[in-house]
Amino acid sequence: MKTNRRTFVAGVSAAAVLSGTRVAFAQKKYDDGATDKEIKIGHTNPYSGPASSYGVIGKAEEAYWKSVNDRGGINGRMVKFITLDDGYVPSKTVEVVRQLVEQDKVLCMFNTLGTPTNTAIHKYMNQKKVPQLFVATGASKWGKPKEFPWTMGYQPDYHTEAVIYAKHMLANVKDPKVGVLMQNDDYGKDYWEGFKEGLGKDVGKVVKHVTYEPTDPTVDSQVIQLKDSGANVFFNISIPKFAAQSMRKAAEIGWKPAQYLNNVAAQVTTTMKPAGFENVQGVITAAWLKDPTDKQWDNDAEMKTWREWMAKYNPNGNVGDVNYVYAYSVAFLMEQTLKMCGDTLTRENLMKQASSLKKLRVPCLLPGITVSTSPTDFYPVQAVQLQRFKGETWELFGQVMSAEGS
Amino acid sequence: MPAFPKKLLWVLLALAFLVPLLHPLLPDVISNYRLFLVSTMIIAAIAVLGLNLLTGFNGQISLGHGAFYAVGAYTAAVLMDHLAVPYWATVPAAAIVCFMVGYLFGLPALKLEGHYLALATFALALAVPQILKYKWLEGLTGGVQGIVLDKPAVPFGLPLSEDQWLYYYCLIVMVVLYWAAANMLDSRSGRAMMAIRDQYMAADTMGIDTALYKTVTFGISAAYTGIAGALSASAIAFVAPDSFNFFLSIKFLIGLVVGGIGSLAGSVVGGIFYVLVDNSAQALSMFVKNDLGLQFDLSAYTVFGILLIVLMYLMPMGIVGGVYLALRRLRGG
Lengths: 406, 333
Prior knowledge:
The structure holds 2 protein chains of 2 kinds.
Chain A: H1 5-25, E1 29-30, E2 38-45, H2 55-70, E3 78-85, H3 90-103, E4 108-110, H4 115-128, E5 132-133, H5 158-172, E6 178-183, H6 186-199, E7 206-212, H7 220-228, E8 233-237, H8 240-252, E9 258-261, H9 268-275, E10 284-287, H10 301-313, H11 322-340, E11 344-345, H12 347-354, E12 383-390, E13 393-402
Parallel strand pairs in A: 1-11, 2-3, 2-4, 4-5, 6-7, 6-8, 8-9
Antiparallel strand pairs in A: 10-12, 12-13
Chain B: H1 6-18, H2 32-58, H3 65-83, H4 87-109, H5 114-133, H6 138-141, E1 147-148, H7 162-185, H8 188-198, H9 200-205, H10 210-236, E2 238-239, H11 246-259, H12 264-291, H13 300-314, H14 318-332
Antiparallel strand pairs in B: 1-2
């Protein structure tokens, strides 16, 4: 049979009507936190204390749910987003999460922030069988559906990212001798472990490994040590302040290695510009989100929508802060997952839907990166693409890569 | 500071033991979450009690009791995690370890008075979370990742929920510690402690071994706070360096001042107050913003701060002192 466009459209709409009626007749099922009118979502975030710069994520998500409600909610239900301050103190997280789950009776926790804080509630959430979805941490331990079927991560983990750098380096740098600068905490160690795994039997190619504390004033002496070791590759595991310092220092003392910079510090305005554009040409990093300070996305449709949303719902927000892009993308994913639940807003169905995402396009992820999960794959975003710094912007190259088996 | 009326004490104690038994009848009012919250209050109260022994009764100022709390919590966690020690045995262990740490710290602290001692303890509070992350200790402490633990299981097949049992466990420990502290303060040693606080030189002249009393008080105080730390490790079922930041020490000090310096009952009130206000400050700031619709974006700590200032202004002697004064005024007509 020949299908022209009109019959195709007719067929699709008939299917839509049919499926629509089926939904209408299906019995509504709810767990705590969901009714005909409302869906309650819990969230924790540091709004006070040393990690309070992450507070914008909670604010941005609050704004996102407001924009969802202004659009009419999710399948006609308004979202009530309850976000509480835990100050990045794990014992406090346990307290407020118990409040959210047991007193406020939320349907699920969403994008709770921090590695130690999420670790503190990991067991509790799984005992209570309350979804702990799309947690905001780059640690690699959140995708274990067998032991922890109620917990799911979101972003590509640090470990995987570091494996990719190691593989790229082995394939592209002749006779590599690697110097590593690492922040001395769990985030730094995750990268370091991944890098070692990526090197495999070539782990001996690391000739120098130096660390710094986030409270150090500079990393100058560390960079000098790296240069003196004779390294010709520089793997930089540091946050923006120290990434900028170290790359500038390397240029100053005339050390010109091949440079791999962790994604944590890959923003143009906070790292690359202060380091000096002339000093960071050719630096390689892996990305998965669009950087709002990178000019190449100025005319990008998704980023335009994002900017309009920022102007309307976060008028005081800093449009150069990648945390807003992050929050926007992860909240979009949560919205889609809830939509897919239809009228069966049970915790079990929520996990089922969250683990059956198929190549979902989430706005503000890099072109070609989609979200896929399955009952055995609890890592939503797994792909990254390498990019090289050129001029005043990042230039994507090669394929979108995803680490296998994680 | 007046002694707590005995009758009232017994009534409160009876209520504290009986009310949670109503949990199966009124699961929404006496919920597991609320029992857990009261357990954290009790734990805070024990920690404040420890600080009160040192600051309130012996006159030594400490800004670093969070450090002893952390040592207690880690002692318990390491014992449970590495040596599979049952949770109830970790309390005396934490007490012994913290007593030794406190005693040893008290030795050099003998030379420090007032503000200088405060600064030294402050340094201790800053150092401990860093030390816990140190690479040589990492195998033991789990570094920044911390240690995940199990919650105390209900013993003897008692028909209690986990949180009910945790509550009773903490309550029993507190009652024992409170009783011990009250007895100690009522003895020769207690009077010596207070004499040192009130008039150091006179106490020395009268033959009190001031050095011994000061260091031992430091040790006992640290042991109390360490026990609170061990209980918290069981209650939260997780320890990590981030849980013991410097603000924890300040929290104990706030509890101490608010409840009433130099009053045992005040320590309990202070512990309860801190947890209660800390939690309600956030609810209050959300209430102002969402329900009253006022466009003040008050952070929870702003609300907390305002409450503290008001309280200090109205009750400069702390809550227990304020209530006592109010009662006396009422009676005096």
